[in-house]
Specification:
Low-confidence stretches: 142-151, 161-183
Largest sheet: 7 strands, mixed
Shape: elongated
Order of helices and strands: EHEEEEEEEEEHEHEE
Length: 183
């Protein structure tokens, strides 16, 4: 059986994604208001995929939630279900990625990311983000409302991460590898 997944390593994650403070005598992590941007990663033979992570959530996120935006270089021809992991914890279970849609967005609790940061800090390792394809869906159930996104370039798909309404996200920093830039 062919396993399809994409994995990203967030180096120095406790320092990059959070601030460390003391609360009640113990250290706690507070999410930074930044956007961490991954490199493109292979998603099997089908596409490349990139990940944007907002530890404190993006402009649409619920309180105390982090947000992730995933974009493919080529929209999938078939819908599929997937899981998304942050460290060892599952952030999204059996979510559907619709055929013809080049991007998807999801939210998960800050506590899940905080737990991964605590492990990374204690064991001096990276935080892993992983997208796992579970199963392909029936090709006759293509979501035609999302078909227009399949023609978008990878650069256009990344631009869409600014928001569903097109409005810019709250101000912060974008981190791509060793560099940090204002967005």
């Amino acid at each position: 059986e062919l396993r399809v997944s994409a994995t990203w390593h967030v180096g120095d994650a406790p320092q990059v994604l959070a601030e460390r403070r003391r609360s009640g005598g113990r250290p706690v992590f507070i999410p930074r208001k930044i956007c961490w941007l991954s490199q493109w990663s292979s998603f099997g033979k089908f596409s490349l995929v990139v990940c944007r992570l907002w530890p404190a959530g993006d402009g649409d996120a619920a309180p105390s939630c982090a947000a992730v935006f995933l974009a493919m270089s080529v929209a999938p021809l078939l819908s599929f279900t997937f899981d998304f992991y942050v460290g060892e914890g599952m952030a999204a279970n059996r979510r559907q990625w619709s055929a013809g849609r080049a991007w998807t967005r999801l939210e998960f609790s800050w506590e899940l990311l905080e737990a991964a940061l605590e492990v990374a800090d204690r064991e001096h390792q990276d935080v892993l983000l992983r997208l796992d394809l579970l199963e392909w869906q029936d090709p006759t159930k293509v979501d035609s409302a999302n078909a227009s996104q399949s023609k978008a370039s990878p650069k256009e798909n990344l631009r869409r991460s600014r928001g569903r309404s097109g409005s810019p996200r709250r101000r912060g920093y974008v981190r791509t590898g060793p560099e940090v830039r204002r967005h």
